[in-house]
Amino acid sequence: MEMYTFPPLLCRKAKTTCSRWLQFKRNFRMEKDKQQSRQTRRNKVRVVSARFTDIEYQAVEKRRKDAGVSLSRFVHSVLLTGKVVQRISKADADVLRKLAGEANNINQLAHKANAGGFAGVATELMLLKKKIVQIIKQLSDDWKNK
User: Fold this and answer.
1) Full-model pTM
2) Residue ranges of the alpha helices (H) in the chain?
3) Domain residues for 14?
C-alpha cells in the first residue's frame, strides 16, 4: 500500500510551512467571520442618507464626538430613541472598576464571617465601608460636574 504525502503548505504571514490543522483552523475562523458579517449585513439592509449644511453637519459632529460614538450609531440612536447614551469615560470606568473590586472584597469578607464569625472581620468591613463611601462621593461629584 502506497502512502501519499501532501506537499507542505505555506503560511500567509510568515512565508513558512504550517500544518494542515493550523490552516484548517484559520480557514474555519475566516468562514465564521464571513458568516457573521453577512448576517449583520442581512439584518441592516436599508441605507438612509441625509443632506446637511456645513453648520448643521458641524453641530451633528460635535454632538457625536461629545457622546463618543460613531456617526452611524449616533444617527441610529437619535432617530430610533430620540436620545444618545454617552459612552463611559476612562476615568469613570476606572472608578467603577475600583467599586467592583471593593464589592469583591466584601463578598470575600462575608464568606469569612460565615465561616469564622463576624467579630474577626468587623474592622476590615469598616475600612471597606470608608473606601466605598469615598468612591461613591467621587462618582457623584463627577456626575454633578457634567
Assistant:
1) 0.41
2) 20-43, 54-67, 71-81, 90-116, 122-145
3) 7-45
